[in-house]
């Protein structure tokens, strides 16, 4: 188990992952040469899954994670 709080490390890591994902999705949606019929649906699903995953993780760490006293 890590010593001390890792909240800042995780916040920075997930912020970087989010920005990378948004940039990649933006490039794919912006380029018309990337002609895939469901690209908007896939981008929305990917973003939704990321937000749901973060939400579940926050609920877990807030209510169910064993705390070291």
From TrEMBL:
InterPro entries: XK-rel
Example of a GO cellular component annotation carried by this entry: plasma membrane
Keyword Transmembrane listed: yes
Name of this chain's protein: XK-related protein
Entry keywords, A to Z: Membrane, Transmembrane, Transmembrane helix
Organism listed in the record: Ditylenchus dipsaci
Main localization category: membrane
Superkingdom, natural source: Eukaryota
Membrane topology: Multi-pass membrane protein
UniProt-annotated location(s): Membrane
Residues that span the membrane, as ranges: 12-30, 42-63
Pfam family, one: XK-related
Family, per entry: Belongs to the XK family.
């Amino acid at each position: 188990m890590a010593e001390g709080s890792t909240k800042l490390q995780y916040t920075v890591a997930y912020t970087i992952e989010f920005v990378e994902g948004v940039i990649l999705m933006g490039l794919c949606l912006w380029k018309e040469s990337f002609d895939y019929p469901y690209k908007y649906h896939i981008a929305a699903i990917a973003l939704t899954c990321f937000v749901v995953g973060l939400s579940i993780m926050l609920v877990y760490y807030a209510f169910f994670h064993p705390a070291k006293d």
